[in-house]
Amino acid sequence: MRRAADLRPFLTVDRGFTLVEMIVSIVITGIIVAIVAVFGRGQIEAYLDVSNRADLSDAADTALRRIGRDLQSALPNSVRQSGNFIEFVPITDAGRYRADVGGGAGDDILDFGSNADGSFDVFGPPVTIGAGEELVIFNLGQPGSDVYAGTSRRAATAGVGLSKVVFNPNGAQFPLASPQSRFQIVGAPVTYECAPNPGNPALGTVTRRWGYGFQGTQPVAADFAVLGGQTSVLVGDVAACAFNYTPAVLQRNGLVVLRLTLTRNGESVQLLHQIDVLNTP
Hints:
This protein is 22% helix and 33% strand. The protein is α+β, with helices and mostly antiparallel strands. β14 and β15 (253-264) form a beta hairpin. The chain starts with 18 loop residues before the first helix and ends with a strand. The mean pLDDT is 89.
């Protein structure tokens, strides 16, 4: 009789981890995690810092470019600045008026010698006048020709694709004729307000205000509480800001300088933006 072979040493036997093996595995895993954390923490923090700075730079650049775009389309000699408030009158359309008779029977010139003349032909492309928009001619931003005082603007009849502008002379013709026979159609004034908060930048803002109407004196914070109008926050996290406007003396232009500092999560960015404002009426 043959003796059966004993195959037990060659068979795989399933068994679990011992307590010692588990403890050793946990200790080794903890050491590896600690090493990764020590060497990876700097890279993670650097990534978060760069991300915060990039977000702040984009927000500040977008805000300053929006203000600059608005100011470059402002009515000549309508920009005025007081502290952290800068105000302007936006142009919505423009053209040239007929100043001389051209031989046509229906030629309609703008007669500056008549207080009853309330219409003129438009030279060039037709213009569009929205509801509530007004006509301005040769605004100098000075007494006697000031859009805010109302001496250089008149209420105009709204319409689309107009080749003739009709307005209300209101018993007084425009005080000055434009040497280039220019006119502008304008909307209501707009103000940008900078309200920084160095102690808590999360509460600092740059706000756009509009819909409060023309005021002889530039409105500031206390005035808006009474005037009302609409507001929209342009950017937050404002730690510091400054608006400065310098009208030119010898040339028909001006320079607006905007400084803006945004702070978030310990990171700050500071941007400076200069805008050339054309003041040729």
